[in-house]
Specification:
This protein is mostly helical. The protein folds into two domains: 128 residues; 40 residues, no CATH class. It is built from eight helices and no strands. The longest helix has 40 residues.
């Protein structure tokens, strides 16, 4: 029961502070949403700290992405799996507070200068940056299943369907679920 509320690492305040600070720093780099920083989250919590395995990290992201609600919920699941309820609070607060504060300030700044050439150039330059971060995230999330043919076919299929059709992404998620249920993705 203790692990349910306090996670694998108990109530270690050092772990909570590390989670809050690292996720807070990443929130300032989250152009395109929190999911774009998943590769560094994985590097930190799996590779550097060893708090989760690759499979646990990927499962945390997958569970949160499948649930209804905001895209950022996966950080709470990662935190929960590391340090229970306190870990979820630390990662969520770290992911939301700095970026929300910066977004508020940047919005005010941008609104005052929306017609300037510099602001238009900055806005146009964010699209390729966001795309690159999303591709890096996709690469990290396929790590546990890269030896299988299913994911290698499913990823380009999904990208092509999103680019060439107006099909709802939920149907592509369903295709991925069927591939996983049939054991073709692992």
């Amino acid at each position: 029961m203790n692990d349910l509320f306090f996670g694998v690492h108990g109530q270690d305040s050092g772990v909570l502070l590390q989670l809050f600070l690292h996720f807070g720093l990443l929130s300032l780099l989250a152009i395109g949403g929190a999911i774009t920083t998943a590769p560094d989250m994985q590097r930190y919590v799996v590779g550097k700290q060893g708090w989760l395995s690759d499979a646990q990290f990927t499962s945390s992201v997958a569970i949160a992405q499948a649930a209804p609600g905001p895209n950022v919920l996966f950080v709470a699941v990662v935190g929960w799996n590391i340090a229970g309820l306190a870990g979820a609070a630390a990662t969520l607060a770290g992911s939301l507070l700095p970026s929300a504060t910066l977004a508020l300030a940047a919005t005010r700044f941008g609104d005052e200068r929306s017609d300037s050439r510099g602001m238009r150039a900055f806005t146009a330059g964010m699209a390729p940056l966001t795309l690159g971060l999303l591709l890096a995230t996709g690469w990290i999330l396929t790590e546990p299943v890269r030896d299988s043919v299913g994911p290698l076919l499913l990823v380009p299929f999904t990208v092509a369907m999103m680019l060439k059709t107006k099909i709802s992404p939920i149907w592509l998620v369903a295709v991925g679920a069927v591939v996983g249920a049939l054991g073709l993705a692992g």
